[in-house]
Amino acid sequence: MKTIIAAAVTAAFAVTAHAQPKPPPAWHQGKGANMADSKLAPHAGKNTETSAADIPIKNLKLPRGFRAEIWAAGLPGGRAMALSGDAKKVYVGTRGMGRVYEVTDAGDKRTVRVVVDKLTQPAVTFNKGSLYVFAIDKVLRYDGIAGNPNAQPVDMTAKFELPKEQHHNWKYIAFGPDGKLYVPFGAPCNICEPPSKEYAQIRRYNADGSGKQVIATGVRNTQGFDWHPKTKELWFTDHGRDWLGDNGPQDELNKLAKPGGNYGFPYCHANGTPDPDIKKADPCKGVTMPVALMGPHAAVMGIKWYTGKMFPEEYRNSAFVVRKGSWNRSKPMGFDVVQITPTDDGKVTRKTFISGFSQDKDSYKFWGRPAYIAQMPDGALLLSDEQNGAIYRISYSAPKAAAKK
């Protein structure tokens, strides 16, 4: 009898446990009652290989004289890129795939191999012959990997004081002109007061993980940064929060003139917009405002200051900023690359450099999602497309003068 009762109780608990509703996905967080019926949702990534023949690169639109060609394919989910010292190898991080790829440039063709797999959202950078791989809960360093495909990783996780809880997406790390390793630690939510001070910030370290310094706070989710070639100031992108409607808050382009600035999250967004859910007195007091607003929900990603000599003069000392494309608005925004040029009054001008990834300005019909930019020694750019798992080479040659009649 006791056995029967025990079995019944166990079964009842099992049914109750089974009946518990699943928690909403993370991207639902912050969704207010006024948007409860919204069907908006993140676009599912394509996690299978796309052959070069199936990528409609001819649809891309660039200024006269520029050309886009498929440089490498077969890197599902490929995002941020890091070049080896001689640029013969390009290392590529991913998000959902959990992989790091190595692309070898043999001149007339590129080959791809997986360096490491089954990590959580790995980002990559290359410094003094070593590849650094930052995953959510792990830091690995591969010494001499460009010349040795069998290089074994050095586990450096304990050196970098990673947050114990998984934080909001980091996708980009880089060494700065000061030789320091810069690492963003995003907010662990769409909108919330972070559970500790180790979130919503940018840090820098010595290459061995020592010397940690927090250089910026209130940064919700930077997905890319680069240093101005003349001033050496750090410029970084930042995603605005979701679920406040089509028109905001806008994504940001920020400038770090000196360490220690606060950029507003979670209380203040964009150009001084107080958050309606997370409130405090004078929410924008002392907040460093962005250099430029980059569009609502545009998913602003990588930024690269152009220092090459291939492109015309008007592109030098300008930055190329990638906008991967929105999901949290009724009509698409982004799906392009824009050129940002500082002006004498401290502002910037913005104009479209590459478009054509989206086929319809009023609906989400897109074939590609650009993510990051790298610059090659010859001055050409590499542009990653996360949707197709491809890298495109952007080059320039002066148009030939029209023949005289």
What is the topological layout?
Elements: H1 2-19, E1 66-73, E2 81-83, E3 89-92, E4 100-105, E5 110-116, E6 123-127, E7 130-135, E8 138-143, E9 154-155, E10 174-175, E11 181-185, E12 201-205, E13 213-217, E14 225-227, E15 234-238, E16 250-256, E17 261-262, E18 268-269, E19 273-274, E20 292-296, E21 300-305, E22 319-323, E23 336-342, E24 348-354, E25 370-375, E26 381-385, E27 390-396
Parallel strand pairs: 13-17
Antiparallel strand pairs: 1-27, 2-3, 3-4, 4-5, 6-7, 7-8, 8-9, 10-11, 11-12, 12-13, 14-15, 15-16, 16-20, 18-19, 21-22, 22-23, 23-24, 25-26, 26-27
Give a description of the structure.
- The chain is mainly beta.
- It has a domain at 44-73 and 297-399.
- 4% of the residues lie in helices and 33% in strands.
- The chain is built from one helix and 27 strands.
- It has one helix spanning 2-19; strands at residues 66-73, 81-83, 89-92, 100-105, 110-116, 123-127, 130-135, 138-143, 154-155, 174-175, 181-185, 201-205, 213-217, 225-227, 234-238, 250-256, 261-262, 268-269, 273-274, 292-296, 300-305, 319-323, 336-342, 348-354, 370-375, 381-385, 390-396.
- Strands 10-11-12-13-17 form a five-stranded mixed β-sheet, with no helix packed on it. A four-stranded antiparallel β-sheet has the order 1-27-26-25, with no helix packed on it. A four-stranded antiparallel β-sheet has the order 2-3-4-5, with no helix packed on it.
- The radius of gyration is 23 Å and the shape is globular.
- It starts with a helix and ends in a 9-residue tail after the last strand.
- The model has no long low-confidence stretch (mean pLDDT 92).
